[in-house]
Specification:
Helix content is 29%, strand content 42%. The protein contains 3 helices and 5 strands. It comes from Brassica cretica.
Length: 139
């Protein structure tokens, strides 16, 4: 069970906090997560999933015709020189309660959801960049 609040800038004047209660199922082995709503303001349906997959950047050059199936195999065939990236896939489904499911209110809610999702993905990307730049802790 996770309780979060999503912030939305309403007409660039004030920030509205929307509380979200989610049930999340994580599979750390496959790097997948499924989530569904418990209580979401104005939403009838709210669920989805996401997955993080490794991308072996230099596999064609360093591993030749062998395709690695795990980071350990990639490290072995590339001699520790290969770079690993990440592919993030998200599937998100939501449906507001009536009358919010009718245009033009549905367009506004869809716009809010898309804008918030893009903002969250950009924050995730910025955090990953910061972690890569930080390097190992110094003693």
């Amino acid at each position: 069970m996770v309780e979060k609040a999503v912030a939305y800038d309403f007409l660039s004047l004030t920030t509205i906090s929307i509380p979200i209660h989610l049930t999340m199922e994580e599979n750390r082995k496959d790097l997948t997560t499924k989530y569904k709503k418990e209580k979401v303001l104005l939403m009838k349906e709210f669920h989805g999933n996401y997955k993080v997959e490794p991308i072996y950047v230099d596999q064609e050059r360093l591993c030749k015709k062998r395709l690695p199936k795990s980071p350990e195999e990639y490290k072995k065939c590339s001699g520790g020189q290969g770079r690993i990236g990440s592919k993030f896939t998200i599937n998100h489904y939501f449906q507001p309660y009536p009358p919010f499911s009718l245009p033009p209110l549905s367009w506004f809610i869809r716009g809010i959801t898309i804008k918030t999702s893009k903002k969250l993905l950009n924050l995730l990307q910025d955090m990953a960049f910061s972690l890569r730049q930080a390097g190992p802790p110094s003693e």
